């Protein structure tokens, strides 16, 4: 087990130890000060901070590699969010191999995607978003090395109460449950030369490939969903230097004919940009 993987396992174990200590303290009325129960939680975040540092810090040799050019994973009109063109790590942490990850949302026309609301509606059905069900494509000729397809597509978290619930409650529970619960339904492709592509938050039951399959660039492999740690239907895409997001470092990418769109930038991947055969 790599040091990076061991750190993530220790992080989750210390979080569980904190919960167990709090419950035991309440049940058995132990005499020491309750704040001592927070020690495993403090240690957990020390561990994950170190693990995140190993995950692709600026002084890492892997972080200095040239961007890998691949085809875009979608076709049509989309916008970017949490883009590595604006900052790295793009999602605030190196964990889960997401140093250079990007989120993209379907924007077929202005106003087609429901806007964020402060209070109401608290949540929307995934079918209300144009990204839901959109075809997801292989970015290169590759081998499928991970395929998970059993998690539900939940309601959106696109109100202030919904977003707070995602950040403070749901996200913490998913972190304890492991990377698979964060990614939701997902695929990892081995592109060769030590590069792997991960696709997260896919629609349940939409995967058209399984582990061991060979795929061609532009081949439809799944549909966009709202599973895992997701606020609304979108695609989370990243390149990594290994197949396990807990152990891998993020790798930079560029999409052929598009580059790396910045936060809020609208881009279009025309059908001609991918080979659907």
UniProtKB/TrEMBL annotation:
Ordered alphabetically, the record's keywords are: Hydrolase
Pfam families with a match to the protein in the record: Peptidase_M23
Classify the source by domain of life. Answer: Bacteria
| PANTHER family the record matches | MUREIN HYDROLASE ACTIVATOR ENVC, PEPTIDASE-RELATED
Name it. Glycyl-glycine endopeptidase LytM
Instruction: Return the EC number.
Output: 3.4.24.75
Q: Which GO terms describe its molecular function?
A: metalloendopeptidase activity
* Ranges for domain M23ase beta-sheet core: 170-241
UniProt entry tagged with the keyword Hydrolase: yes
InterPro entries recorded: Cell_wall_metabolism_enzyme (IPR050570), Dup_hybrid_motif (IPR011055), M23ase_b-sheet_dom (IPR016047)
């Amino acid at each position: 087990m790599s040091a990076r993987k061991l750190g993530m396992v220790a992080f989750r174990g210390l979080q569980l130890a904190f919960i167990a200590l709090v419950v035991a303290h309440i049940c058995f009325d132990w005499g020491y000060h309750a704040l001592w129960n927070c020690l495993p939680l403090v240690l957990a975040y020390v561990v994950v901070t170190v693990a995140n540092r190993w995950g692709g810090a600026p002084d890492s040799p892997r972080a200095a590699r040239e961007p890998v050019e691949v085809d875009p994973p979608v076709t049509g009109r989309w916008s970017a969010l949490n883009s590595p063109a604006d900052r790295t790590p793009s999602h605030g942490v190196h964990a889960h191999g997401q140093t250079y990850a990007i989120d993209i949302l379907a924007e077929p026309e202005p106003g087609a995607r429901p806007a964020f609301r402060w209070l109401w509606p608290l949540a929307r059905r995934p079918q209300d978003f144009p990204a839901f069900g959109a075809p997801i494509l292989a970015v290169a000729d590759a081998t499928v090395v991970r395929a998970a397809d059993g998690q539900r597509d939940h309601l959106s978290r696109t109100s202030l109460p919904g977003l707070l619930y995602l950040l403070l409650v749901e996200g913490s529970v998913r972190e304890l449950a492991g990377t698979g619960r964060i990614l939701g339904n997902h695929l990892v492709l081995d592109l060769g030369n030590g590069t792997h592509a991960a696709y997260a938050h896919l629609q349940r039951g939409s995967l058209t490939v399984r582990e061991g399959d060979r795929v061609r660039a532009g081949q439809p492999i799944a549909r966009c969903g709202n599973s895992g740690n997701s606020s609304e239907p979108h695609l989370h895409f990243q390149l990594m230097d290994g197949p396990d997001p807990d152990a891998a470092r993020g790798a930079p990418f560029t999409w052929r004919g598009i580059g790396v769109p910045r936060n809020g930038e609208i881009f279009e991947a025309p059908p001609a940009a991918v080979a659907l055969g």
